[in-house]
Specification:
0% helix; three-stranded antiparallel β-sheet; single chain; mainly beta
């Protein structure tokens, strides 16, 4: 993604582009979880503007993202 890339439609970020807490690439997001929080550039995002499937994060309605903007998902998973 280049600096200031604007996505007019939904933004789809594949799970394979994310790393875990240890810096290892992941292949999928958790299939079930209690809740998930999305941060873009360190700012928490509203529920309802994104969905998470095991294969991808989808940000609805478009966004302008810089390639250096950190995108973080925080999952709470019950054992």
């Amino acid at each position: 993604m280049s600096a200031g890339t604007h996505f007019g439609g939904d933004v789809i970020l594949p799970a394979s582009g994310f790393v875990d807490d240890n810096g290892n690439l992941i292949s999928a997001f958790p299939a079930s979880y209690e809740y998930v929080t999305l941060y873009i550039n360190g700012v928490i995002q509203q529920n309802g503007v994104f969905t998470v499937a095991p294969s991808a994060l989808v940000i609805s309605g478009g966004a302008t993202l810089d390639g250096d903007d950190p995108v973080t998902l925080e999952f709470v998973v019950q054992p």
